Fold:
Amino acid sequence: MKIGIIGLGLIGGSLGLDWMEQGHQVWGVSRQEQTCQIAEERGAVYQANPDLESLAGAGLDLVVLCTPISAILATMERLVGILPSETILTDVASVKAAIVPKAEAMWPYFIGGHPMAGTAEQGIQAAQSHLFRDRPYVLTPTHQTQAEALNELKPLVMDLEASCLEMDPESHDAVVAWISHLPVMISASLIAACWGQSDPNHLQMSKRLASTGFQDTSRVGGGNPELGVAMAQYNQQALLTALGDYQDQLDQIREMIEQENWLALRQLLEKTQEHRPYFIK
Amino acid sequence: MKIGIIGLGLIGGSLGLDWMEQGHQVWGVSRQEQTCQIAEERGAVYQANPDLESLAGAGLDLVVLCTPISAILATMERLVGILPSETILTDVASVKAAIVPKAEAMWPYFIGGHPMAGTAEQGIQAAQSHLFRDRPYVLTPTHQTQAEALNELKPLVMDLEASCLEMDPESHDAVVAWISHLPVMISASLIAACWGQSDPNHLQMSKRLASTGFQDTSRVGGGNPELGVAMAQYNQQALLTALGDYQDQLDQIREMIEQENWLALRQLLEKTQEHRPYFIK
Structure:
């Protein structure tokens, strides 16, 4: 198939690498001329160009929007005059309810998507083959979705060897609020609170003594600030719900410690030890 | 030197491996006969025995208590009748203020210690050489500490290639509350809250979609429950102080999200991204 990818960062570039390897013809768009060059050299695209108009007349079956969340709808508006209306469009944003209804209203063959893979690195240089292998790839079709569009998109997800799941946009957002967006906020809060401790000698020693426990718990809180804000901005309600429940749970733990209810704390920690493996592959 | 190690788990066994390699003669004690055998086979001890009395008459210069926290003081009481009073004693507990004053009152040559290293595994089988290399090893001498005891203990810490630090017991506990004990509670709270979400379909999908972010943030909350309770029990006040400050910080983040103060959230996340590397080696 002929596939367009708009935004050649980690996700867009990695999609391109896999699809090119599978014999698809990938047309890339990136605002940076240099990114286009690197994408071509690395074989992530058949050809890449900074102009969105370069996709006109290419006869693309599918176009994947891999821009930052805030640019998706604006980019789609521009595509209206460029692509034939029967082109299938999908995105890769980590939030769906803020995107899908508006995108569907603009484009009948739009299907929301969220490939759940990543690395600590960003950009085309970090793109890698098989990034999505055995990782969840969520599609969020709605009652408006055209069955033939979904039937064309799914085999492309299978080509990535990803595990394809279907959810409605709201359920998707509720779930990622819990397992992806909430961890960012509680982890950032750990760094901020620890940094803000009042005794300068204790802060100094905290930096020296911090070990793997702090390192792991703080990792996602020290990530890309733009992405963290986007999670909160575009998934506000689901994140606030998860955050409220989390705060209630933490209050309970604090009460157990205050009241020296060691039996209750022990039972809780036995449960968390028992339950964690269900979330870990 | 002749060194006794009581408790041949990960820490005791790893201390033994390094010290034996350095030419010291290590006498081990473990309640489990099998653990004693494995310690001997692995070269973590010169000889090991289930009876504490086996240390009598061995002419030990130093004895290291590597039992669970709750057993340290009781074990020391038994040692009074077994070891000559000039033997130097130290422990490896992750809390110090609950141990050191009582231990000093019982034993004039006691110095609190906390080697800050570990692995996910436990027990003598997990013991490894160089576990403490380039890791902090905190000693907590007080105004009661005999200088000659400290001068004998320090070179043994250097033999481990650890980075030897001195702190008072209260400062040590305040710092580990922040960088080690608090992360356990906020991480456990994530698992418990996520598991407790009300929609069973969302819980089901959370398990399928949880990825590296959830995995890292939840790691220490899914650890040994006994150790988690001991942290709270023996470091109660310092942990409650850190937990309170953490909850205030998280409240601020929730307010930013509620009030859509994206600029403030962005500035906070930029700071946490900037500050985290100071805690990470």
About this structure: The longest helix of chain B spans residues 169-195. Chain B touches chain A through 94 residues (CB under 8 Å). Chain B has a mean pLDDT of 96. DSSP finds eleven helices and eight strands in chain B.
